[in-house]
């Protein structure tokens, strides 16, 4: 009886603690929601500031990915909203200039390109743009170099080094520990599976990586050198020699204009604005500036921007691109009479072939009713490229990684390690191929041939839709396919995209195609509140997965999934082999 009361009391305490936790999250959500809802006031002589708290995202769903990272405190801003803010600031009399104050910019390469373009346009107003840095990453300097003047801390550094990639291989590791991996792929450039097949980089992968890195670096380095008025040959020497790492060298070789402390930088801006020493320098962040006018112009016809960011999967979750969820979004846009055109913004390296196919079909139905324009972000490769094949027109950024028209499947098994440790199995079945795959014994020869047929069939279906959309023959697409990844610039040259342009360009064209003179832009999916995000997928497996992802990093977590997630093992994949970031 005594232990019974103990158990009852323990359960009551556990329930009370759980209720307290839920209540705490509920109250904090209400507090954050009310704080976020405040409309900022733009004071006279204000400076629009892009700083360390600026987290530029491509899609509202990207907020979910960082939810379980308790270190995340920064307010996220959609790239479209950021560009609109800079454009509005150009004619806002209260905004006197822009200050770029970020050492490690949290944004993708195409997003930085777009921000740079918007700031270059802002400069036409005659307002100043200044930048300040301490320990400056390459991506931050790429953005900051657009400024009229670049100021560096006297003890600071600029990590200007060019681009490189490191490919890790697991073949010997798998063999050493008795892990078998059956790989089936179409495309000699489909290098997503190379780490499991080889101990070194293939000539094909080395070729495509070299081309990609050089394309991207040519675009970015040319723009930096032009903004800083540095000769191309000299700029290469500066980068090769890592002169930016030494502040005096940064000054000597014109990477920076002056070495000063942050307080001196702020005082310099105050002097520019003719403020007195006692006057406060009014800096306003992108997020606060956006909130100052966020509710304006929300009536009338709409151009909907449907954001698709992350890996493509089967299922109904909010974060990333889950087919069931996106099919619902697409159907809603198809039936919404206020939406006159749709821009599908893709920022995805691909994923499940089955999920990609379902999304493509629904987009094809949408296209029958409304203009459908596609805009590419950092990535639109493999399955990310496949789902674009319903578009009336495709816009890509110059530095977008796209193409990767190829298919693969990975099937791990653990026969050797099991046998070494005294584990074996016998099979009893009703049919010839009831057990064509086993985690202990691998895939039967017939199973391999069957999956190979599936991979080949998926590749042919992939190329078929590309030939229809791009109006090229199977042979033409196959010659630039084979899993090869291209930069947006090259993709335009070989006909995989229609135009090089931004999300804003795609929106303007969509409005024009729909015959709209007046419209507003509506973002989908709608951003979830913190409360909804916390409890949308509240189960033990999802929570543990997000904790692990934040601990080991997204890239390492995806490798772990390939080996451990049964859903991924059973799928034919359309996925890009790697990601490239300007760090």
Automatic annotation (TrEMBL):
Does the keyword Kinase feature in the UniProt annotation? no
Q: Name one GO biological process term.
A: signal peptide processing
Q: What Gene3D superfamilies does the record tag this protein with?
A: 2-enoyl-CoA Hydratase, Chain A, domain 1 (3.90.226.10), 6.20.330.10
Compartment annotation: Membrane
Could you tell me one molecular function GO term of this UniProt entry? serine-type peptidase activity
Which Pfam family is an annotated match for this chain, by its short name?
Peptidase_S49
List UniProt keywords, sorted A-Z. Hydrolase, Membrane, Protease, Serine protease, Transmembrane, Transmembrane helix
Q: Can you give the residue ranges of the Peptidase S49 domain?
A: 122-272, 365-516
Question: Active site annotated at which positions?
Answer: 190 (proton donor/acceptor), 382 (nucleophile)
Q: Which GO terms describe its cellular component?
A: membrane
Instruction: State whether keyword Protease applies.
Output: yes
> Where, by residue number, does the polypeptide cross the bilayer?
12-35
* Superkingdom of origin: Bacteria
* Family classification: Belongs to the peptidase S49 family.
Protein name (Swiss-Prot/TrEMBL)? Protease-4
Organism encoding this protein: Chryseobacterium daecheongense
């Amino acid at each position: 009886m005594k232990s019974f009361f103990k158990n009852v009391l323990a359960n009551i305490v556990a329930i009370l603690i759980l209720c307290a936790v839920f209540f705490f999250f509920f109250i904090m959500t209400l507090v954050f929601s009310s704080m976020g809802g405040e409309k900022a006031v733009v004071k006279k002589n204000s400076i629009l500031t892009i700083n360390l708290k600026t987290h530029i995202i491509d899609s509202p769903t990207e907020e979910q990915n960082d939810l379980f990272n308790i270190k995340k405190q920064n307010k996220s801003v959609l790239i479209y909203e950021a560009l609109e803010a800079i454009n509005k600031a150009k004619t806002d009399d209260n905004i006197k200039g822009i200050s770029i104050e970020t050492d490690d910019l949290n944004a993708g390469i195409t997003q930085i390109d777009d921000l740079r373009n918007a700031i270059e346009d802002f400069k036409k107003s005659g307002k100043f743009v200044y930048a300040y840095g301490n320990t400056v990453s390459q991506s931050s300097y790429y953005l900051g170099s657009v400024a009229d003047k670049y100021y560096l801390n006297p003890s600071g550094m600029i990590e200007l080094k060019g681009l490189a990639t490191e490919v890790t291989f697991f073949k010997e590791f798998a063999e050493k520990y008795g892990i078998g991996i059956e790989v089936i792929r179409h495309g000699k450039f489909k290098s997503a599976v190379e780490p499991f097949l080889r101990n070194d980089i293939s000539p094909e992968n080395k070729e495509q990586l070299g081309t990609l890195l050089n394309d991207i670096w040519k675009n970015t380095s040319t723009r930096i050198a032009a903004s800083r008025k540095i000769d191309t040959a000299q700029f290469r020497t500066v980068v090769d020699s890592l002169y930016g790492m030494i502040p005096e060298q940064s000054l000597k070789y014109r990477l920076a204009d002056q070495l000063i402390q942050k307080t001196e930088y702020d005082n310099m801006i105050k002097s520019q604005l003719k403020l007195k020493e006692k006057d406060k320098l009014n800096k306003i962040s992108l997020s606060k500036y956006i909130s100052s006018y966020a509710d304006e112009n929300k009536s009338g016809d709409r151009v909907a921007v449907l954001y698709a960011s992350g890996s493509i999967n089967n299922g109904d979750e909010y974060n990333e691109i889950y087919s069931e969820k996106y099919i619902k979004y697409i159907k809603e846009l198809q039936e919404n009479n206020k939406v006159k055109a749709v821009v599908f913004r893709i920022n995805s390296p691909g994923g499940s072939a089955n999920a990609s196919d379902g999304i493509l079909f629904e987009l094809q139905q949408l296209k029958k009713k409304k203009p459908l324009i596609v805009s590419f972000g950092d990535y639109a490769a493999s399955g990310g490229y496949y789902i674009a094949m319903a578009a009336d027109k495709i816009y890509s950024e110059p530095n977008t990684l796209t193409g990767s028209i190829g298919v693969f499947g990975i099937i791990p098994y653990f026969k050797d390690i099991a046998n070494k440790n005294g584990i074996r199995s016998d099979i009893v079945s009703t049919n010839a191929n009831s057990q064509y795959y086993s985690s202990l014994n691998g895939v039967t020869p017939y199973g391999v041939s069957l999956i190979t047929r599936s991979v080949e069939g998926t590749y042919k279906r992939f190329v078929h839709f590309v030939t229809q959309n791009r109006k090229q023959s199977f042979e033409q697409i196959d010659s630039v396919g084979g899993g090869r990844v291209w930069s947006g610039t090259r993709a335009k040259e070989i006909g995989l995209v229609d135009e090089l342009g931004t999300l804003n360009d795609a929106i303007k064209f969509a409005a024009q195609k729909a015959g709209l003179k007046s419209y507003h832009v509506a973002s989908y999916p709608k951003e979830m509140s913190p409360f909804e995000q916390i409890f949308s997928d509240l189960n033990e497996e999802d929570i543990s997965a997000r904790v692990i992802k934040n601990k080991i990093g997204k890239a390492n977590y995806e490798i772990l999934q390939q080996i451990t997630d049964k859903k991924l093992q059973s799928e034919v994949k359309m996925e890009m082999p790697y990601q490239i970031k300007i760090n």
